[in-house]
Amino acid sequence: MRPSPDLHLPQATRAAGNLPAFLAASAVAIPVLLAVSAGNIADPIVRYDDYPALLAQPEGFWQKTLTEGRWLNYLWHLRGLITPAWLNFILFQVLWGLTAAAIATAATPPGNRKWFAAVLALTLLPAPPVFLMAPWSSTLIPGFAVLALFAGLALVLSQRALRLLLPVFTLLAFTAYTTFPLILLAVCLISTQKRSLPDLAKLLTLFGASFAGAVLAVYALNWQVHGVFGIPLDPARRPDPAQDLAEMWSHLPLLQETLSVLLGKLSFQSTPVLLFHLCLLIAATAVLLRRQPLEALYLWTALWAGMALMTLQVLKLGVTIPVRAFHFTWIIYAVLIVRAAQELSRNPGLPGRLARNGVLLVALSYLVQTAVQFTRFRDWQHDTRQMASAIAAQPGPGPVYATGSILDHPSARKAGLHRASSLASRLELLTGRRVILCETAAEACAHLPPELRSPAAEPQPQARLEGLQDSSVLVFPPQQ
Predict the structure, then answer these.
(1) How confident is the model over 355-400, as pLDDT tens digits?
(2) pLDDT at residue 16 is higher than 80
(3) Rg (CA), the chain
(4) Residue closest to 255 by CA, chosen among 207, 315, 213
(5) 367 phi, psi to nearest 5 deg
(6) CA-to-CA distance for 69 and 51, rounded, in angstroms?
(7) In angstroms, what CA-CA distances link 130 with 76, 96, 133, 275?
(8) How far is CA 296 from the centre of its chain?
(9) Residues whose CB falls within 8 Å of the CB of residue 458, separated by 6 or more in sequence, listed in order
(10) Confidence band for 428, pLDDT divided at 50, 70 and 90
């Protein structure tokens, strides 16, 4: 085993040495990330339940304090200051870019450090779970600020000081997004300099106690405010809590579905790409086990711990977990393959060149794929802007009624809309007019002509606006 060259450096010296690598990684990461997401910056996609954060409406987020324990996000909704969606999206991306740069710097010991830190940052940036989180950028700003701050502190604080802060940051991260504490654990494991089995056990114990403390704190807060000791899942997720081992065993298909969707999203639904990642991961692990076995153990422990918690949640609660909650998996994978490439590059030769090329292939191909993915939303944004212009041209201050199958609209399917209320919120934001969804407010739409309430199916459905006295009807024919 080759010890890290900066293992015994004084903390002040090591912190000063981290600065150039962090600045270099940030200087690369942030412009690249903004360029990759350029297709979504001018008019970002906003999911239906991100509008309360965008518009600083705490009442729209209140229920999530009970069903998800997201109290930090609720406090963010109380800020009173409304900023445009594009600014919130840029801030979200910058915070993730800084987090990636800090993790890359913490993970990269000397030896072409600036180059490898920059490459690791580029490999972290296109993490598919982060792309899937982007439509909730307004809500997630405080959570990503917590991650960026903790990752930055890992570069300047001693190992002991960072771990003393872990319980506080775990509580903050848990109340922003329940799986964010796993990223804090990954940061602690990645940034550890003096690795040993006793140290690993102590850190896992500290994290376990911190996570349990955060859960109990949120339980107690919910009991005081909502009268419920716990975090009851939203019924919309159709939870089926297990009462014994037999019921947990019956939830194995849900675990299989969760993992299948995760692997599909991480590989862009390509089996050859998935096999390439698995081969690269195995090869990188073999290299680190040979050259830095404790580092490999620390990294895999972060992955095992996260997957164990996720598995327990699926089996116990009887729900699938969305891919965006598996943020930590891409972080560990990226660190493993880049660190292996760095170790192989300590000596000139073919293995190092192949490893560097493999890492660059992952980083660049995923950056391109992410840029393409961000263009998926443009058709919906364009169509809804046109709808808003047509509505603005209609006389009368009355409401706008939306009928038919909104989610069947081609650009809505392409954008992956979750609920029709996304249309109502967006048009209300663009026009200032009230939008009534007839599928959820049938009584309010009872006076509309039958052909508008239930439009006929069309082979290629296109939305149209119909005038009706002092109101307007936005008709979405279903797919034939």
Answers:
(1) 999 999 999 999 999 999 999 999 999 999 999 999 988 876 788 9
(2) no
(3) 24
(4) 315
(5) -65, -40
(6) 19
(7) 20, 8, 5, 22
(8) 25
(9) 477, 478, 479, 480
(10) very high
Q: 197-226 and 159-174 are packed helices; what angle lies between their axes, rounded to 10 degrees?
A: 30
Q: What is the mean pLDDT of residues 9-22?
A: 71
Sort residue 82 into left (φ over 0), alpha (ψ -120 to 50) or beta: beta
The per-residue b/e assignment along 22-60, b for 16 or more CB within 10 angstroms, e otherwise, is bebbbebbbebbeebbebbbebbbbbbbbbbbbbbebeb
Query: Taking the complete model, does pTM exceed 0.90, yes or no?
Result: yes
Q: Is 192 exposed, middle or buried (0-12, 13-18, 19+ CB in 10 A)?
A: buried
DSSP-derived secondary structure for 139-172: HHHHHHHHHHHHHHHHHHS-HHHHHHHHHHHHHH
**Joined tokens for residue 142:** 């405080």
Handedness of CA 294, 153, 145, 224 (dihedral sign): positive
Q: 45-79 pLDDT, tens per residue? A: 999 999 999 999 999 999 999 999 999 999 999 99
- Return the beta strands (E) in 88-133 as ranges: none
Percentage of the chain modeled with pLDDT above 90: 77
Amino acid in the structure at residue 19:
L
Helix (H, G, I), strand (E, B) or coil at 350: helix
Write down the residue that tokens 């200051």 correspond to.
81
Question: What pLDDT score does 222 carry?
Answer: 96
